[in-house]
Task: structure prediction
Amino acid sequence: MRQRLVNDQLTLQAVAGSHVVMLGFSLPQALTTGLLGFAVHRTDHDEQEAYWLRGKKTFAATDPGFLPGATYSTRDHTVQGFTWSDFSAKPNHRYTYRVVALGGTPDNLQPMRECAVEVTTEPEVGQVHHVFFNRGAAASQEYANRFGTPPNENNPNDPRWAWLSRGASEAIETFIARAIDNTWGLRVAAYEFRLKRVADLLKAAVDRGVDVRVLYDACANRPDADGVVFPRDLNLATATAAGLVPPVQMNRITRSDVLDPPIGHHKFIVLTHNGVAEAVLTGSTNFSLGGVFGQSNVVHVVNDTTVAGHYLTLWNDISVNPVHATLRQQLTGRNVIPVAPPPDRFPAAGNADVFSPQHNLDALNWYAHLVQSATGAVMMTFAFGMPAVFKDAYRNSSAKLRYALLDKLIPSGTPKAQQPAKIAEMTAIRAMKENRFAVGSRIAVNSFDRWVKERLTGLNTHVQYIHTKFMLLNPLSDDPIVITGSANFSEDSTKANDENMLVIRGNTRVADIYLGEYMRLWNHYAFREWASKQADPADTAFKHLVPNDTWAAEYYGDTDHRRQREYFAGE
Result:
């Protein structure tokens, strides 16, 4: 949901997702004279609470000197920026946000003007789309303050699990529970099938007569130092331990004739009733502890019989382990990839799907074309580096803002001799004023800028932070595009691996949820990446708020901050 209002020349726009409300505000530059920042007040109409939201920065003159990890009322210690995100919002709640521009002095802040809007956050469960993002930020101040240590893998009731899941695990469990008797079926396609809870629930479904088939990656990949083939051996062990026996458990082998075969990278479940597909659960979340509770991921359910039917057909196609070249040709013919933006693909408010492996790179090139032709904003996640086609798109896009969220700046495994050139290339791209990049990181020391030390869950090995695979195009327009699924935006994900992507056009509810979660993670990691580059973070002096109006200058003129101010304020 979106609301925008202008009062006394102060603009306020609120974009409400499910767990995040983004606020953008703006003033004419002439009215920033004497501006010391903004205070943000929230009224929760459902829980009958009203209070000033809190931040981490203080004015030196009025600093109360709280311990690291403390927060401060924005009425006393302002927001010196033109965006603010409320990450404590709850789904399907009605809120009023009041933003007050403050002048005066740090010890005597005076209101200059104010504006207020009312919004209702989106429910995670919709008529067609259910969207659940996990926390995806175990390395956070909230986790460090609440729990401190990683979750106990031997205790399924450890409250850390529920906090980290944030509804993702529960969404998978609820989806499986929809199959209630022998008139229902579940078709699972999994790269990693290593989550005991999911395996046990599928066995319970079998026991109540549900027609269950679990197709997991069983490719003969290179074994590790202990002789274990990942993920094949762990998938088999999990299924067997839960009592899932053939033909319920099934092997997906993409190719048996090559040393390093493509991977069966799907993470979806199709729900059928009387043999007809009713819904599909998909997204980026592997059925593993790290997928659900560690790295950032999304569980996306689509209650659309046409889309679900396409996924069921795909499952049937891959379940017989077809010849790889034949499957590529088959899926290439089935996908309809346009050379122009989505009006040539499907009508407004439509859903489409794109499946891999494909015979060519038309889909990848189409995604890049969308980036290049966007006019408002582009937001993408890259778990394994940015491919060349998207580097070109980010260099040449028409979008005023181009965000990228990466797990690593350059891919792991980049030969050492090539690393300086690759880093220099990415550094040059991200230096463009239209581009805003953030790379996964964490606060690794205590007392940096009054933050406390953060630690990871230890549940992930290869991808620690950003595992989602989605892109947003013009998300604040009336015709946004969301592309989400299992496929990394790469050549291998297009031509080699088993992959699936959803294309959702014209659905502002879905776009608002994805936008809020994207900016939650982008802001989280942008700061941590900057902090990790400080020479000695433990000795870095606390950076107080600026006691005058000079902080606002960077939000005007031809700067990335100006573009951000104008875009999120709806100007």
